[in-house]
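About this split. The held-out portion is used to measure sequence recovery: a designer receives only the structure tokens and must propose an amino acid at every position. Recovery is the fraction of positions where the proposal matches the reference. Here is one held-out target exactly as it appears in the evaluation file.
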């Protein structure tokens, strides 16, 4: 089935009539003016997304530096839930979700310069900056105010096919497709652990043992840190041990006054709730660092004592997306020192999306995988 073409930038449907597709398929347009006359070029200045691969290949004639992928694996994540609840202000209305996915290259624009070949398994960095603003020019491209994100601001991988910029793909040869889809969240964790400046021998607390918390646990533990994981769910506590946690607990008791040296050198909050973000501050020892990794609601507020921060000389940081992390994430997955596939607890076909969504929203597993 052919679905409507949506505007790459704003999500507006630029064609939803069968006649539009028939006309596009039957005619051989030689330049962009013909497309512009149909209202496609005007509204889709960067790319168009379809599920019919023949039409994708035709559209690629007018979209340099892009590739068409056949989706192999896609994960549901907390960001998808925030988007569907209207809790992601920058998300496009009615966008096709999905930004943690892998797929096989099925078409490449003739003018695209790339090392990827047809048939290659690739994973995706969904974040595409403008490369022109002050942040992009000072190596902080993840803070680009014009950043667009596949699966958030434009249609993503919860489909059979998708067109993506060549700059967004990373060849994942040697990695199972389901594990390759973990490259994007792992790249975010690489950034988070870098932000925490974790050293070997540090006492680290990870609050929350969802997929992100478990990845943080694995990277810190493999780097020589002593990791304690706080998690209410028994299944997730067990998983934390398998991912390298030295200790697991339901509730944290640091055992004394942080000013006297009790507590943790680095605390990662991986839940996204105001309560646990406040708890993270309480658990950091004097001179410690708190990293808020979890994504809170836009209206969430955390009560902070400025005197406590001053007296304990706390460093409070946050992380946003995955700057310069994808290449490293792919290498980590290739090393296979951790059983990353164990993060995947449920797999569904795209036609079973409703059942997958129910499992996902009930938090009855870890990663919920969708296979088109």
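Reference sequence for scoring:
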């Amino acid at each position: 089935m052919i679905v409507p073409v949506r505007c790459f930038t704003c999500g507006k449907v630029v064609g939803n009539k069968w006649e539009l597709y028939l006309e596009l398929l039957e005619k051989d347009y030689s330049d962009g003016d013909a497309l512009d006359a149909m209202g496609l070029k005007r509204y889709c200045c960067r790319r168009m997304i379809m599920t019919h691969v023949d039409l994708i290949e035709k559209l690629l004639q007018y979209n340099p530096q892009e590739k068409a992928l056949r989706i192999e694996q896609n994960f549901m994540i907390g960001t998808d839930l925030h988007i569907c609840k209207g809790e992601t202000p920058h998300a496009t209305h009615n966008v096709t979700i999905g930004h943690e996915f892998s797929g096989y290259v099925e078409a490449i624009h003739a003018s695209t310069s790339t090392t990827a070949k047809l048939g290659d398994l690739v994973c995706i960095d969904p974040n595409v900056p403008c490369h022109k603003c002050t942040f992009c020019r000072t190596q902080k491209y993840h803070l680009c105010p014009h950043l667009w994100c596949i699966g958030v601001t434009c249609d993503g991988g919860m489909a059979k096919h998708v067109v993506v910029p060549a700059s967004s793909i990373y060849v994942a040869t040697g990695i199972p497709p389901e594990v390759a889809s973990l490259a994007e969240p792992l790249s975010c964790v690489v950034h988070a652990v870098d932000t925490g400046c974790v050293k070997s021998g540090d006492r680290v607390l990870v609050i929350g043992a969802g997929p992100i918390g478990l990845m943080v646990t694995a990277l810190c533990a493999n780097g020589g840190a002593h990791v304690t994981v706080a998690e209410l769910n028994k299944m997730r506590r067990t998983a934390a041990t398998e991912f390298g946690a030295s200790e697991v607990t339901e509730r944290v008791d640091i055992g004394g006054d942080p000013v006297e040296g009790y507590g943790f050198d680095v605390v990662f909050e991986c839940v996204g709730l105001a309560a646990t973000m406040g708890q993270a501050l309480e658990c950091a020892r004097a001179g410690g660092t708190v990293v808020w990794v979890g994504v809170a609601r836009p209206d969430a507020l955390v009560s902070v004592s400025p005197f406590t921060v001053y007296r304990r000389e706390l460093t409070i940081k946050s992380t946003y997306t995955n700057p310069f992390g994808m290449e490293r994430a792919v290498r980590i997955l290739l090393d296979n020192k951790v059983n990353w596939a164990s993060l995947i607890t449920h797999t569904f076909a795209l036609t079973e999306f409703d059942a997958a969504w129910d499992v996902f929203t009930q938090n009855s597993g870890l990663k919920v995988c969708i296979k088109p």
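Annotator remark: The first strand starts at residue 5 and ends at 6.
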